[in-house]
Design a protein that fits this description.
It is built from three helices and seven strands; from the N terminus they run βααββββββα. It has about 150 residues and is an alpha+beta fold. GO terms for molecular function: 4-hydroxybenzoyl-CoA thioesterase activity.
């Protein structure tokens, strides 16, 4: 396997370290690629709860606002192994009227393992139609997560 480039220098607006567990890995002990999407979703949930101060559970539950991914790009650069702790980082690239574009990455030991770009759309969970960004989300983004 070729050497992977160093982790991105993009300024992350939110980051967390997550241990790579047995449940994330295939029989060879490396992260099974769809598990990165599970971990990125965990990061987005943590960002809402801790970074933006908006309960992700309340958003989906009582408020009935969904946030599905409608566009997804992933570049897998290097493997992650069971027992490692990787840094997962999120940066806001764009805030639209009904959507967010996020740049996410996972790195460890200065090596970028995976980079993702995701477009998430706010939806009404009753109709599954796109809705405007909730005002509290827009205010939280304006206060602490500048868009490019």
């Amino acid at each position: 396997m070729n050497a992977a480039p160093a982790a991105s220098s993009r300024a992350a607006c939110f980051a967390r370290d997550y241990p790579i567990r047995f449940s994330h890995c295939d029989p060879a002990g490396i992260v099974f690629f769809p598990q990165y999407l599970v971990l990125f979703n965990q990061l987005v949930e943590d960002w809402f709860n801790e970074g933006l101060g908006i309960s992700y559970a309340q958003l989906l539950g009582p408020r009935r606002i969904g946030l599905p991914i409608v566009r997804l790009e992933c570049d897998f650069r290097a493997i992650g192994r069971m027992g490692e702790t990787l840094r997962f980082a999120l940066a806001v690239e764009r805030v639209g009227g009904k959507s967010l574009t996020l740049a996410l990455e996972a790195s460890g030991d200065g090596v970028l393992r995976v980079a993702s770009r995701q477009v998430l759309v706010f939806t009404d969970l009753e109709t599954h139609r796109a809705i405007a960004l909730p005002e509290d989300v827009r205010a939280a983004l304006a206060a602490g997560a500048p868009a490019a």
